[in-house]
Structures are given as C-alpha cells and as structure tokens.
Write a structure and sequence with these properties.
Radius of gyration: 18 Å
Shape: globular
Largest sheet: none
Distance between the termini: 43 Å
Order of helices and strands: HHHHHHHHHH
Length: 170
C-alpha cells in the first residue's frame, strides 16, 4: 500500500496502476486505487469500466467530487453528455463543490454543442471565483467565441488586476 501511494504521489501512474490491482486484492474498498484504475481506463477509452471504478471510489468530500467529475467525463466520452451533466448536478456536498461542478458541466456542455448552457455554467463559476485561472480561461474563451471579444477582455483584465502578468493570461 505504501509503494502504491508513493507511486501516485510521484506521478508514476503506470507503476500506480500495476500496484492498484494488488491493493484492491487486499482492500476492495480502497478509493484511491479505484480512482487510479478509473483514470487509466478513461485514458484507454474504456468508459464503462472507468465509470464503474469511479462509482466505487466515492465516500468522502474529495473522492466524491473527483469520482463524480471523472465519471461525468467518462459518460461524455461514451456519448452521454446530458447524462454526464445530470449526474454532476446531483452531487451535493461542501460549499466549495459548485465552482467545480459548474466548470466541468460547462466544459461538457460546450463540447456537446450546448453553448447557451455552457455559458450559463461558466458565468456562475466565474461569479463564485473570478480569480481561479481555469474558470477565467473557460469563461473568457466562451465569451470570445459566443459573445464578443470586449467581454472576454474584461474578464482577463479583472484577473490581471488580482494576479498581474500571469503568463497564461498575458
């Protein structure tokens, strides 16, 4: 189990995947091992297997959120974008969940061609935290494509006032 956690912490996902199977043989309820195997299956486009692993990984605020979001991406990959967003929306938890739920649901909506829904999600996430880089990028990008460049520039300018000269924003 320690070698598995060390592999995950060091970013050695291939090693972690190999060890995750051994960890699960000893502890079928190990949530981190389920997440690692699920991510590996997602990478291999084994969406149903990934969803099954993610569903078994939930049972705590971080694993509930991560497992649900990853399961949503697996559902999207399998062609079920609306179901992915619906499942993300069902998740309840701490006060910090909504920003992640809206960001990921917005990205799935955008990729699924539901631009109006994506814009609503990105706007809500942005209202929750206008200093979170990924939210700023997603919302400004959506604005530049679906609304106008001036609105997108305003989002970046607001961010630049909070965190000047960020290389990704510049």
């Amino acid at each position: 189990a320690r070698a598995f956690i060390s592999s995950v912490a060091e970013g050695d996902i291939d090693g972690a995947v190999k060890l995750a199977g051994r960890v699960l043989a000893a502890d079928k309820s190990n949530r981190v091992a389920r997440l690692v195997i699920g991510v590996h299956d997602l990478k291999l486009k084994k969406y149903a297997a990934a969803q099954a692993s993610f569903d078994k990984s939930v049972r705590g605020p971080i694993t509930d959120l991560v497992g649900t979001l990853l399961s949503g991406w697996a559902a999207y990959g399998a062609g079920h974008g609306r179901a992915a967003v619906a499942n993300i929306d069902k998740l309840t938890g701490p006060a910090w969940y909504p920003i992640f739920k809206d960001l990921h649901a917005g990205m799935i909506d955008e990729l699924s061609g539901r631009q109006k829904d994506a814009g609503m999600r990105f706007a809500r996430a942005y209202k929750l935290d206008d200093s979170m880089l990924r939210v700023v990028q997603a919302y400004a990008h959506w604005l530049s494509i679906n609304k106008d460049d001036k609105a997108a520039e305003a989002v970046y300018e607001t961010f630049d006032k909070k965190l000047p000269r960020h290389p990704l924003v510049e």
